[in-house]
Amino acid sequence: MGVRSRALEGLEVKSAAPSAGFWRGRRVLLTGHTGFKGGWAALWLRRLGAVTTGFALAPTINPSLFELAEIGRDLDSRIGDVRSRQALREAVDAAAPEVVLHFAAQPIVRQGIAAPVATFDVNVMGTVNLLEALRLRPGATRILVVTSDKVYANAEAGHAFRERDRLGGKEPYSASKAAVELVTAAYRATYFAPKGVAVATARGGNVVGGGDFGEDRLVPDVVRAWSARSRPTLRMPHATRPWQHVLDCVAGYLVYAERMGDASIPAALNFGPASAGSVTVADLTRAMLRALGAEPEFDAADDGSTANEMSALGVDSRLAEETIGARNRLDATRAVEWTADWYKRARSGENPRTTTLDQIEAWTALGES
User: Fold this and answer.
1) Which CATH number fits domain 16-361: 3.40.50.720, 3.30.420.10, 3.40.718.10, 3.40.630.10?
2) What's the pLDDT at 1?
3) What is the mean pLDDT of residues 302-329?
């Protein structure tokens, strides 16, 4: 599949966008604000006028988007661990949130395989701890728990998963996120729905975008190789994933949080590219290297570490489009271009905060033309 193949082509589309009219002055608790998606969400919430409290571990990587984009300026940043019930209760009391966005997680598949107990503890019990703190302190009207596109029982038959498909997980990360779905559903039915509190889960596809420096993630690995003038090494070059730009994914989450107060909105939605949007790891790598101005070449690893990882994954996000108007504005080609532009601008010395805010503005402008 070439870089300009059908899977990497498409036109800009208009779609629902986060509304300042909803978020302005609204009190928000955002967990995971020191992470990649959480950082973009924090900056966007500030732009929309929300009064945000962040709760997360200190960044574990250097550099990090949190530090580079000075995200701590935009919210009440509280450093803590979701495994601590006391710390979470204190954060919830301080935030007094109307809206809760739960991004905090252990997000890496191979780290989950290497450290399963910690993965289940952070992802499952961390969610339990947050929902329990919110149960004990009434006030929130909307609680959105971010899980993953990997929550489905994947027999790798090649079809894109819909929200009604069976949950599962053959390795600890996926299983932990499927368990989070069950935990959230139980708290919703038992404690929150009877009080009129909307609780939902967002199942996002794989994201790309500037400011991701995580270990064992494709784009950061490609960027590190580009910076070192070397070739990246891919573990699963033929694996397919539903890649999308972080702005499209985060926009979907924010719009979902706005709309989930309507009883007709589903309690779980997928967020990903159009059905033709799943692209191989190899093709995404070639596209990213070309966008960075490097030769589109890579090495393939054969270290036996991928036995439990999915080789084929796709999600069907039509329900999100039909119910809340969420649809990606950036096709895969543009998503790669915007991602590469962020890193090139950072390498040239431009302020990463400015670049990140510029891209939020540019994404918003796509729907205004």
Assistant:
1) 3.40.50.720
2) 27
3) 80
